[in-house]
Amino acid sequence: MNAAAVTFTGVTKAYGTVKAVDGLSLELHPGETVALLGPNGAGKSTTLDLLLGLRPADSGDVRVFGTSPREAIVRGRVGAMLQSGGLMDEVTVAELVQLACSLHPRPYPVREVLSRAGVTQIADRKVNKLSGGQEQRVRFALATAGDSDLIVLDEPTTGMDVSARQAFWATMREQADRGRTVLFATHYLEEADAIADRVLVLHRGRLLADGTAAEIKAKAGARKVSFDLDAVDPDALAGLPHLTGITVSGSTVRIQSTDADATVHALYGLGLYPRNLEVAGLGLEQAFVAITEAEEARTR
Ligand SMILES: Nc1ncnc2c1ncn2[C@@H]1O[C@H](COP(=O)(O)OP(=O)(O)OP(=O)(O)O)[C@@H](O)[C@H]1O
Question: Per the confidence metrics, is the pTM higher than 0.80?
Answer without folding.
Answer: yes
